[in-house]
Amino acid sequence: MEDRKPFSPALFSFIIPIIVLSLVVQPTRYRPILFLPVLGIAYYQVFYTTTGHALTDLSLASSITPYVATAFDFIILTEPQTQLFQLGQKIPSASYSTLWAKIKWALDLLFSQRGIGWIHEPSAKLPPPPFAAHASRVKFIAHQLATALVYFLMWDVCAIYARSTPVFMLGDPPLSEQPFLRKCINTWAWAIPATAALAINHSLLSAVMVGLGIWPISQWRPLFGDWKEAYTVRRLWSRTWHQLLRRVLTSPGQKLRQYLSIPKGSWLSSYTLLYTSFFLSALIHHTADYMMLGRYGGALKFFLSQAFFITIEDSIIALGGRIGFTESFPWRILGYLWVQLWFAYSLPWWIQPEIAAGMMRDGMGYSLILGFWNGNWAPGQVIQEGV
Which of 345, 336, 235, 349 is nearest to 282 (CA)? Predict the structure, then answer.
């Protein structure tokens, strides 16, 4: 890590303009050349630079690597100007009369990671819009700020617990060596802040964008789906978890399916998409870990194992259906326990190296709750005995 250069924000700032340029230029066989500078900048920043702060490195890398995947989709695999349309769009963006119209179209595409408002929107996988088009902007902003506050309090409660737990602050004993019940508790203590941090950013960003009139209220969706849907591992990933990477993870699988002439809708098609998507997700997170750790962590094992486990899960559900079991409330309760057991077992493969590198310690120094309780804002102290 000592041999790595300081992270360059200026160099990082070139990635988005290059992708936008690739979307704006006229379709040409030379357009794929623009993928090379994106890949080169990302490779250098992730593998040869550091901020010296574990959580910041992970956050930056978790932004950089998805941009590479997006660039690969939009520059190499797809001709967006002739294949990707906004709902209601009448002409290809290549026919837009002004440069600004093309740039606006490109920015809308780049920052619509879930495809909301586009023909590739995964409507069945996203939560429905909770606000009507005529909803009050003030009411929406107030709702989003209140949502952000609730998520922050959830984050803060878990942060208080984490700061008093050596497994998070010191990385010892390792999470994988904890008693099973404690492992389940600690899995939630990591998952809730991770989920809350994403939801807070999304809530605040949407409040600003709607407040400025950039986003229409009717196209806004919650970042996460209904948690009641997460009674299988497949449903958790496909319906409850955020779908920010769905397009860039499924597009290569669809191209592979076409190349191999696999019939659409077949079980082979389904599992081609499943394994390709989790392989690419594993690669994105595995690479992002490197910037923080200075080596590869456990993301590859964790994300690839999800595809294998879903295959087993599908087989068990199919077998149960053949012998007469049908979906019911008691079976859903069993399903929630099934999902909990799996993530308590598999999640430590990924997060243990990150915890050991100081991810939780760096990101949980202050507490709003303890600040009000104690009357000060000093960083929390590690309690050596744990909880």
Answer: 349
pLDDT at 382: 39
Q: Is residue 124 part of a domain?
A: no
pLDDT tens digits along 280-299:
999 999 999 999 998 999 99
- The answer to the question of residue 79 being in a domain is yes
Number of domains in the chain: 1
Collapsing DSSP to helix, strand or coil, 49 comes out as: strand
Q: Encoding tokens for residue 36? A: 């090379």
Q: Is residue 37 part of a domain?
A: yes
Task: Tell which residue, 110, 115, 108, 45, has the closest CA to residue 71.
Answer: 110
What is the average pLDDT value for the chain, to the nearest integer? 89
Sign of the CA dihedral running 126, 130, 136, 137: negative
Q: What is the C-alpha separation between 39 and 14, in angstroms, rounded? A: 11
pTM: 0.89
**H or E element: which one contains 50?**
strand 49-50
**Number of alpha carbons in the 13 Å side-chain half-sphere of residue 253:** 20
CA–CA separation, 127 vs 153, rounded Å?
23
Q: Which domain holds residue 49?
A: 1-111
How far apart CA 64 and CA 265 sit, in angstroms, is 33
81 within a domain of the structure (yes/no)? yes
For residue 181, count other CB atoms closer than 10 A to its CB.
Answer: 9
Count of beta carbons in the 10 Å neighbourhood of residue 151: 23
Cis bond upstream, residue 173 (ω within 30): yes
Tokens of 46: 């992730």
- Give whole-number Cα distances, 120 to 96, 182, 236, 248, 312, in Å: 21, 42, 21, 11, 29
Q: How many other β-carbons are positioned within 10 Å of the β-carbon of residue 36?
A: 12
Nearest to 73 by CA among 336, 252, 280, 338: 252
**Residue 383 pLDDT level (bands cut at 50, 70, 90):** very low
